[in-house]
Amino acid sequence: MSSRLAPPIRRALLLSSMPVYLLLYAPLALIAIFSFAPAPGGQAASLHWYGALWHEPDVLAALRRSVMLALGSSIFGTGLGTLMGFGLSRFRSRARSGFAAAIPSLIIYTPIIMPSLVFGIADLIFFNLLHKATGLFAAGLLTMGIAHVTFQAPYVALVVFARMSGLDPNLFEASHDLYANGWQSFFHLTVPVIRPAIIGGFLLAFTLSIDDFTISYFTAGPGSTTLPIYIYSAVARKGVAPDINALATLMIATVIGTGLLQYLFTRQKERRPMPRAGD
Q1: From start to end of 57-163, where are the E strands?
Q2: What is the 3-class SS of 231-250, one letter each residue?
Q3: pTM of the prediction?
Q4: Which tens digits make up the pLDDT trace of 45-82?
Q5: Domain span at residue 203?
Q6: Which residues contact 214 (CB under 8 A, 6 or more apart)?
Q7: Residue 70 is part of a domain; what is its CATH number?
Q8: Alpha carbon separation from 113 to 16, 100, 151 (Å, rounded)
Q9: Distance of CA 170 to the CA centre of its chain
Q10: Domain total in the chain
Q11: Residue 233 to residues 120, 154, 217: CA-CA distances in angstroms?
């Protein structure tokens, strides 16, 4: 009976999911299609607008800032997130119950579930107060980098925590029995085992940073325009032009490519058997 019902159910689920996929990906496909608009005076589709981007100094400057911001914040966000995920897995008290036991998880989940608009406004107020009090942390790449680290680290922590939760706890006891101290156990046992999660977390953090607009917009300053902010300003100034479609298509391709790499690295934890204390 269930086998006869399965194909209709699968078809119904497929049909019901198609509008969702259409709403998600049709706008992205349209941007890519319009980016191949004919060159001025031409009629056929061309790559003219992609080539024109390399002759725009503002675009190249925004690209450099975006890459610098994404790489720098991802490195720090990955390091902090790795320590957060490791600490949440290894040192949370399993004897506690109720709200006290949920505090570490709440600290990690709060930046993820908080709306980006609220997060950006909070960062803006915080850095303004800090700048008035100390004269430091003026709006710019530094404040943007700090803001990016604060929302990247929780995502990395969740990836690392998921990897750590599959480890045999006796591994750490076995390393101590072999006279390894805490640092040696972390660098020679934990880091090699969770390396795919660390790399995947870095790629995820890079993806989140490279296409972030809301938080970057509220923490940016003069001379710190990134690609998402540049696209927003260009659309507000001259509307959606073919060169903007080309730039947006390149960003979409970068995000999708980085996301696929992140997926491949995190999938390694399912293909590789977890080490056990007796191995």
Answers
A1: none
A2: HHHHHHHHCCCHHHHHHHHH
A3: 0.82
A4: 889 899 988 888 999 999 999 999 999 999 999 999 99
A5: 58-271
A6: 116, 117, 119, 120
A7: 1.10.3720.10
A8: 27, 20, 10
A9: 32
A10: 1
A11: 18, 30, 11
